Amino acid sequence: MDFFLQTCTPQPAQSKDYFVKLGFKIVDHENYFIAYDSQMKLLIGYDRKTRPGITLLKEDWSLELEAIKMHTRVVTKEEGYFFSDPSGSWYRLIEGPSLAVPNTTAACILGNFAGISLETLDIAQSLKLTTSLGFELSAGAIDKGWVSCTDQLGNTISLMTPFSCPHMFLNPSATFFNGKENTQIIANIRSLNISIMEEITAFDPKGQVDNVILREPGGYGFFIFND
């Protein structure tokens, strides 16, 4: 199964420049481009009807679709099968061969990619949809207000109840956990004149900025956190 962060861009050149600055490599296609590094892949379309979410690709989704349709409505279009979960985030399922993305050992400057984070109104329902896609519960619990689910390739989707975090929350967001290195990563981001959406001080006893949130041109959030 191929796992992509999905978004769109009204300005492809600006969006490509943004990801190149962050250290991603680019593969161009007619109606979209893929930004990728050694940890993650973003499928960025030129159709402005595309919404930020997750695209999953494999040869056949028939079994999973039967389970998903028990929990939510699925819209079938030429571009794939579409549905959203209680977080409001969109999923797109595509049937077909894998999209060729060159191998690379290079990582972007944002640090250690820990998966996708979603803030959901109904964590139990979101968990059912996520596990219907072949993900398994790997951490957390519903009664704790958060869970993480991981597939066989190590792709992770984390779900949490609303208002759990003392900062802005974009659905969906890619999360990076960098420990003590996060301060230097934030400095590297500033040095490239990358716009920072929010500087977070809530976790630091001295009120210093130790976490930041970015927003790429198509609207996807990036949490650059120390833990």
How would you characterize this protein structure?
This protein is α+β, with helices and mostly antiparallel strands and 227 residues long. It folds into 2 domains: 2-95, Roll (2,3-Dihydroxybiphenyl 1,2-Dioxygenase, domain 1), CATH 3.10.180; 113-225, 2,3-Dihydroxybiphenyl 1,2-Dioxygenase, domain 1 (Roll). The chain is 16% helix and 36% strand. It contains 4 helices and 16 strands. It has helices spanning 12-21, 62-68, 123-132, 182-191, and strands at residues 2-8, 25-28, 32-36, 41-45, 53-58, 75-77, 80-84, 90-95, 113-119, 136-141, 146-150, 156-160, 173-177, 198-200, 211-215, 221-225. The strands form 2 sheets. Strands 2-3-4-1-5-8-7-6 form an 8-stranded mixed sheet, covered by helices on one side. An 8-stranded mixed sheet has the order 10-11-12-9-13-16-15-14, with helices on one face. The two termini are 28 Å apart. The mean pLDDT is 95.
Comma- or semicolon-separated keywords:
alpha+beta, 2,3-Dihydroxybiphenyl 1,2-Dioxygenase, domain 1, 4 helices, 16 strands
Fold blueprint:
Blueprint: E1 2-8, H1 12-21, E2 25-28, E3 32-36, E4 41-45, E5 53-58, H2 62-68, E6 75-77, E7 80-84, E8 90-95, E9 113-119, H3 123-132, E10 136-141, E11 146-150, E12 156-160, E13 173-177, H4 182-191, E14 198-200, E15 211-215, E16 221-225
Parallel strand pairs: 1-4, 5-8, 9-12, 13-16
Antiparallel strand pairs: 1-5, 2-3, 3-4, 6-7, 7-8, 9-13, 10-11, 11-12, 14-15, 15-16
